Amino acid sequence: MALVRQRDSHLGTFSADLHLGGMLNEKTAFMLVVTLDNGVGSTPVQGVELEAGDVAVAFPSSATSLWSGVMGGAVQRWLTSRVWVRGGVGAGYLQREFTLGSDADYLTLTLDRGYAFAVLAGAGADIYRRSNFAIGAEFHFRAFSLSGVGVYAPSVQVGFNWY
User: Fold this and answer.
1) What is the C-alpha to C-alpha distance for residues 50 and 59, in angstroms, rounded to an integer?
2) Residue 13 domain-assigned?
3) Is residue 148 part of a domain?
4) What is the distance, to the nearest Å, from the Cα of residue 46 to the centroid of all Cα atoms in its chain?
5) Is residue 102 included in any domain, yes or no?
6) How much is the CA Rg of the chain, to the nearest whole Å?
7) pTM of this prediction?
8) Distance between alpha carbon 1 and the CA centroid of its chain, in Å?
9) Residue pLDDT tens, the chain, 163 long
10) Is 51 a member of any domain?
11) Which residues span the domain enclosing 140?
C-alpha cells in the first residue's frame, strides 16, 4: 500500500521487494534493496473539460496513478534465529500521472517525476524453515519526499528467502 500526501490519496494495488546480499557475521547481513509500488487514485473525477484557444475537449472521467520505488542498501539484524529487523537508505523514485478519458480516448499528463533521498525499514519473522529456505511474514516501510509530495509506502508481505 502506498500513500501520497497532497491532494491525492492512493491505495496501493501492487508492491514488490527484492533483496540480494550476504552475511557480515552470524547475526548481521548487508543487502541491496529494490522496491516497487503502484497505486491508482481513489477519487476519480467525472466530466473533465480542457480548453486551449478555440478547441475544447471533454473527457468522461479521470484518475491519477502513482509509481514509486526505492533502490538502496540496508543492514538486517537477527534478534533471534527467526525474527529480524532491517534499516537502510537509498534513492526514492516517484512518477505521478493524471489520466483523462477512457481506454479508447485518453490523455496522460505527468505531474511529478524524479529521485530523492529515501529511508527503508522492515521487520519479519520466519514461519517455516527448511535447510537454507524460509517463508516468513514481513513488514516493509519506505519513505521520501519529492517536490512537496510525501511518499509513505508501508506493506505487509509474505517473504520467500534463501539464506
Assistant:
1) 8
2) yes
3) yes
4) 27
5) yes
6) 20
7) 0.71
8) 7
9) 333 333 344 445 677 889 999 999 999 999 999 988 876 554 444 444 555 566 555 555 556 677 888 999 999 999 999 999 999 999 999 887 777 665 656 667 676 788 999 999 999 999 999 988 999 999 999 999 887 777 888 888 899 988 7
10) no
11) 3-43+59-162
